[in-house]
Amino acid sequence: MIKSFSYLFILSCLSISAHNINLYAIQKDSAYIKNSGVLKCFPEDTRTIKNGKEVQAHCEASAVAFANNMLIFANDKPILKPYSPVFSINYTNIFSPIADQLVTPLTHPNFIEPRKIEDFSVSLDNKYIFATTAFDWEKPEEPKDYNGMLIYWLSDDFNNVKTISVLENGVENENIRSYLNSVVKLPYYKIEGLAILPNNKILLGIREKGESYKKFSYAIEMISVSYQEIEGKIYLNNDFKLAYSFNNSKDFVSENVGLSSIEWDKYNDRLLLLTSYEDQDENIGAYLWSLDSNDLEKGNAPVLVKDNSKPFSLNNKAEGLTVLNDHEVFIINDDDRVLKNSLINGVELTRKTNEAIFNIVEFKNN
């Protein structure tokens, strides 16, 4: 009887402790592809508008978020109704045969109107999902800066999507671009990363910067800004600043890489970074990096994640990253219009124009 009580007491203590610690002790710099698959973004006959003409749509998945057992994706090109550039799928359903995948288009106007949604991020309490556009061009003749927007919504409510503005001295300013311009101080830049950090901090990741979209350099830089919630509405504060810059990626990889996604890993107190590359010969690929909170604050170099002592790499152009749990992340690839063979769980296949390749990456345990 005493032994039975002791055993139950020990189990109880272990159960209590399990809620306070990460029981899966990972190697933060060691990972492998656990699973890969193909996502059907929309039907094959889906259309879009290019240069004023209706043409076949390509899946160019640029962002992913995981919340409430759902995966939410964004296509960085417009999609004609009844479909949408933002869509969702139940996590377990993504492993179904392509014909059986049940993808739901999300059609709130604030999903349809923004141009080039490039990244999502989930708040640490799982309450909100945030999204950013690219900020890489501006059309003054349009009623809104559709390419210069941040939006957010409750993670379980896709029917109430709101835009974010800066609150300064009690006055709302929707022109977020002007605040970013004051930090970057260059005619051209492209945002492709978004991460929500502890203490209500947002990071916006810069992939490209320079004189124009034709003359730029790839970058791995991040701008920080804090936010506040007032009566259920999110506002940015006027404290934009360059928070991180990493200029020595060539010391670690041979390709000329730029930032393509960032996400805070709340389970392991670190920032995960995706970088990708592309050239005129259609060579594409990506790398994964880890940056703990101390190194982020000090501006130190990130750790290049490896697989069996070699750099962990993807042969697709990885564009979106989200954390699934304390040891797995989900990556969505945007190969643009490159249709190449991809290795999917040991089998080579070529995706269709309405499909995207995804990977589940697992960090190895100690």
Work out the helix count. 4
The CATH class label is Mainly Beta
Strand content: over 45%
What is the SS-derived class? mainly beta
Compute the average pLDDT.
90
Could you tell me the radius of gyration in angstroms? 21 Å
* Strands, count: 30
N-to-C CA distance: 37 Å
Largest sheet: 7 strands, mixed
Looking at CATH, which topology would you report?
Neuraminidase
Oligomer: single chain
The shape, in one word, is globular
Low-confidence sequence ranges: 1-23
Helical residue percent band: under 10%
Indicate the CATH architecture.
Answer: 6 Propeller
Number of domains: 1
Question: What does it look like?
Answer:
- Strand 8 and strand 9 form a beta hairpin.
- The longest helix is centred in the first third of the chain and has 17 residues, at 2-18.
- It contains four helices and 30 strands.
- The protein has one domain: 6 Propeller (Neuraminidase).
- Helix content is 10%, strand content 49%.
- The protein is mainly beta and 366 residues long.
Which helices and strands appear, and what pairs or packs with what?
Blueprint: H1 2-18, E1 26-40, E2 47-50, E3 53-56, E4 61-67, E5 70-75, E6 86-90, E7 104-105, H2 109-112, E8 117-122, E9 128-133, E10 150-154, E11 162-163, E12 165-168, E13 171-173, H3 176-184, E14 188-197, E15 201-210, E16 216-230, E17 233-236, E18 241-245, E19 258-265, E20 270-278, E21 284-292, H4 293-298, E22 303-304, E23 306-307, E24 310-311, E25 313-314, E26 318-323, E27 328-333, E28 341-344, E29 347-350, E30 355-365
Parallel strand pairs: 12-17
Antiparallel strand pairs: 1-30, 2-3, 4-5, 5-6, 6-7, 8-9, 9-10, 10-11, 12-13, 14-15, 15-16, 16-17, 16-18, 19-20, 20-21, 21-22, 21-25, 23-24, 26-27, 27-30, 28-29
Keywords: Signal
Signal peptide: 1-18
